[in-house]
Amino acid sequence: MFTQTCQGNLENCISNPVQPDNKLFFFFFFDTVHLIKYVTNNWFNDKTLGQVLCFPSPDSSSKNSLAKLKDIYETEKSNLIKNAPNLSQKVLYPLLLKNKMCLLALNIFHESNSDALAHGAGEKGKDTMETKEFIDQFLKWWNIDNVKNSKKCKRLKNPFCDPIRYEDQMSMISLNKFYD
Description:
It is built from 10 helices and 4 strands, in the order αββαββαααααααα. By secondary structure, it is mainly alpha-helical. The longest helix has 20 residues. Helices cover 49% and strands 9% of the residues. A hairpin with a 4-residue loop joins strand 3 and strand 4. It has 2 domains: 29 residues, no CATH class; 116 residues, no CATH class. The chain is globular. Helix 2 crosses helix 5 and helix 6 packs antiparallel against helix 8. It has a two-stranded antiparallel ribbon. A two-stranded antiparallel sheet has the order 3-4.
């Protein structure tokens, strides 16, 4: 990736290759924990109705609504069995000090939230599926990036948790698709 974007030099930002005279820059994050907090903070701080975060997915641009996750939480908060057990008051309505915690940010992107959105997608429509796909894409990236143990793939039975060892591995193909 750096060979293509930075001509082989490790840099934290480059000018926009599509519109170089526009004075817009692409910034690279090397600290993925801060990237997760950055995305969730931007999602929470959005002032539009439904707290919509636009995300360019590999196929199209999607609008991901935090309100969809809040709706799930509100309907399930008094249930004993929940489709999205990681959603809580602390996660969806964080205090200013608590929104710095990575664990709470990761609870937004939990796999059970994606499944809960898929379960309710029939009645709620296209926006719900876009939010589900955004969470799936982000979770896939996190699983690829957050490999600290070579046995994590087998333990979690998730091929994206396998360390990248060769170019045509599923994780590398997924990252290239996301990058393109």
